[in-house]
Write a structure and sequence with these properties.
Order of helices and strands: EEEHEHEHHH
Strand order of the largest sheet: 3-2-1-4-5
Helix content: 40-55%
Structural class: alpha/beta
CATH topology: Nucleotidyltransferase, domain 5
CATH architecture: 2-Layer Sandwich
Number of strands: 5
Number of domains: 1
Mean pLDDT: 87
Low-confidence stretches: none
Radius of gyration: 17 Å
Shape: globular
Strand content: 15-25%
CATH class: Alpha Beta
Number of helices: 5
Length: 189
């Protein structure tokens, strides 16, 4: 069970937008229940000569470097679901292995809490509509963090990672408030 926010502690959240071609990342910090701050962000782009498992190991190695540099209490990543008729999806097995590697990162220090967010849900929560553009994600992230993302081909993966971290933070804060409310509610007899 996650511990609730304390006003004197800083929480670090690592957001990941995984992809076998490009993986966006963003590190947010928040003190207590305050406003989040973007500490660092970027996009991991492996050399084109790396293929298959070598490419995924390169990405996971760099994710481990991020966790060492910015030890997170929470690791939020975009998960995927596959339709029953998706017998063959280009890159599916590679993406499944990459997500499995991300999940394994939670088994190592600092043992971050894993938060999987589905594309159809986190975009709706951040932007307010199920169908949205990369530019709308960037606008929402910029409003919350005071950043200047464009959502274009150069920063959309990092923008998505920041959006994932924001939604994970919102969900954690909402759960903390709900837990507090439930513990303060009178017990019916």
């Amino acid at each position: 069970m996650e511990k609730p926010y304390r006003h004197d502690e800083t929480t670090v959240i690592l957001g990941l937008d995984p992809g076998t071609g490009k993986t966006g990342w963003a590190v947010l910090t928040v003190r207590g229940g305050g406003s989040p701050t973007l500490l660092a962000h970027g996009t991991l782009i492996p050399r084109s000569a790396l293929i298959g498992l070598d490419r995924q190991l390169w990405i996971l190695s760099h994710m481990q470097d991020l966790i060492t540099a910015h030890p997170p209490q929470m690791l939020a990543y975009e998960g995927f679901t596959w339709r029953a008729d998706d017998n063959y999806v280009v890159g599916r097995s590679g993406l499944e292995r990459l997500i499995g590697g991300i999940q394994a990162l939670a088994l190592m220090p600092p043992y971050p809490v894993l938060v999987e967010l589905l594309p159809s849900r986190w975009g709706l929560q951040l932007v307010g509509q199920r169908q949205h553009t990369k530019e709308q994600i960037a606008f929402a992230v910029n409003c919350r963090l005071g950043t200047s993302f464009k959502g274009d081909q150069y920063d959309n993966h990092a923008t998505d990672a920041a959006g994932l971290a924001l939604v994970a933070l919102d969900n954690r804060q909402a759960q903390t408030y709900l837990n507090r409310y439930q513990s303060d509610a009178p017990v019916a007899r």
